[in-house]
Amino acid sequence: MEVYKILQNYFQQLPIELQLVWVLSAVLGIVALIFIAYLKILRNSLRNKEALKLKYLNNCEGLLLSFLFEEDSKDKLSEKQNEFINTVKNKSNDSFRREVILETLLKLKNEVSGEIESAIQEVYLKSNLKDYAYLKLKSKKWYIIANGIKELTQFKVKEAYPEIKKLIKHPTKEVRKKVQLYLVSLFHFKGLEFLSTLKTELSEWDQIELLEELKYLDNQEIPEITGWLNSKNNSVVMFALKLVKIYNKYEDVNTLIQLLNHKTKKIRLQVIEVLTHLQVLDAKDILKSNFKNYSKEEQIAIFKLLDNIYEPTDEKFILENCNNNNFEIQFLALKMLKSLNEEKFIKILNTKRNLKQHPILNFVQNN
Amino acid sequence: MNEIKNIVLAEDNSTLSLLLKFRLQKEGYKPLIAKDGKEAIELIEGNKPILILTDIMMPFVSGLEVISHVRNKLNLTTPIIVFSAAGQEEMVLKAFNLGATDFMAKPFSPNELIIRIKRLLA
Known about the structure:
The structure holds two protein chains of two kinds. Chain A is an all-alpha fold.
């Protein structure tokens, strides 16, 4: 009590500013203590949860492997296997355990193929796990829907098509993306039909993901894509152009040539790039005749195309651009001229007395 | 006399590891499981395995480092099969340059793995 009174007197004699500092320090100290206690409880709770998860995971792994290695007749599951499926059914009522079961199944499914993969698929389909995934599709939260679609994609549930197709115009981009991946992953090129009606933008990353998904398919028979090349959605046109390039769709060359007049520069540039890749000779004259109307970037792209397919008939056009004020165009023009008509190239060379002042000419001459 | 046929399996996916362990045991091998490259090296040094199965991407010490250690430090000729995920072609080439014997791209069939092991050890 004595100490308390001494402290109280000391505190009261202090100037008001110092009293405030003391009060503030005390409050902050209490807040810090509460925070530390909260973190400790949170850490313990997370550790306990993790330990419990590990226990379930080990248990689930053991059960799954017993299921996989149980001898069964070709079409019928053994009693033990049915028992395992019933266990999964019962345990999946609890969301925490359900997530653990799904994690175990996916951990193995992503790493193995053949009979084992089919058996894991069977567990998923025969238990009620897919019903929970269907329930996720009806959620009001977009991330739960996206998660449900992802799960049905990973377990290749084709029967979910009618439910998932309805979500193709979902207001959230992430959900739409998962739907697109579901369609392509399970229905391959046929799944790309959504492009015909797509109004929203297909980002560069979405396109990469779709192409990556298509890359690993056994059936590489591509459907008719002319409609997508003529789409009003620029991102669909860009994606279709990538398909033309990757799968060498020569039958679409006429559509590509028409696209050289597209109102979007980015598309025109991509078209020139695809034409370069396909080495379309017919495009050359069209591009040469309109050369001056194109932007610098397009002109460079045209010269890159020409560099792949130039012929003696292009000499006049090349010569006209040997003094182009753009570095890349001038370099490519001189390089082609040297290859087509070395005499003329040397003539240009001789007009420039000091080669050191003309590094492009100097470089082309020595290479 | 029955010879102990130790096989070191280095794989950080516990479920796959357990599956392969069962499968190898069924074929009469004695699998020694490591969940990372560091454990794998310890098992290899202490058990003289007849074969090493290793994933490329593992925590602490990668599969490539395991191969390099086996070939360059321990100077062992033990066959090594590496597992790699799709799209890791460059890693697979590095593994072969370091001395890997064979590789299997994930997802793979455990049955096919067993056939390859038998052929390698025949």
